[in-house]
């Protein structure tokens, strides 16, 4: 469950991107707190096919889609959950999460990895992947 501060200052979102031959689809689910069993709203974007994947540059494919999704949200967000890394390996090279955090001008709170892991573990769902993350994946796939 989100802290009182989180509930007073904004929503949480989870996002996912799905690639097809001729288009890229992004999906976003908004929810009120970490214990939510369902989203309160959803958003979709359809963009042209993404550029080919280049090792170490995954964020270049995903970031435009995520920013397009997040630009549709009028309410303040406190946390955005992504299916990707914040930091890449032991070199502390920026991953998708770090690039997204910077692109949003740090308008969403950063949190320690252990705190993030614990909050994801407390999310609703019978198995390892929380319900809302499964839902956003399914929505992005159409």
TrEMBL record:
InterPro entries, alphabetized:
Endonuclease-V
Q: Name one GO molecular function term.
A: endonuclease activity
In terms of superkingdom, the source organism counts as Bacteria
Q: What Pfam family does this protein match (any one)?
A: Endonuclease_5
Q: Name one GO biological process term.
A: DNA repair
Q: What name has this protein been given in UniProt?
A: Uncharacterized protein
* Species in which this protein is naturally found: Cystobacter fuscus (strain ATCC 25194 / DSM 2262 / NBRC 100088 / M29)
């Amino acid at each position: 469950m989100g802290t009182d501060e989180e509930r007073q200052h904004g929503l949480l979102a989870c996002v996912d991107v799905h690639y097809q031959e001729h288009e890229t689809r992004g999906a976003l689910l908004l929810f009120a707190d970490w214990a939510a069993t369902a989203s309160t709203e959803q958003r979709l974007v359809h963009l042209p096919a993404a550029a080919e994947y280049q090792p170490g540059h995954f964020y270049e494919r995903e970031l435009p889609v995520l920013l397009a999704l997040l630009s549709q949200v009028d309410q303040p967000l406190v946390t955005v959950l992504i299916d990707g890394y914040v930091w890449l390996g032991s070199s502390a090279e920026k991953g998708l999460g770090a690039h997204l955090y910077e692109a949003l001008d740090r308008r969403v709170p950063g949190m320690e990895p252990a705190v993030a892991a614990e909050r994801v573990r407390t999310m609703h769902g019978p198995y390892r992947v929380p319900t809302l993350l499964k839902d956003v994946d399914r929505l992005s796939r159409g």
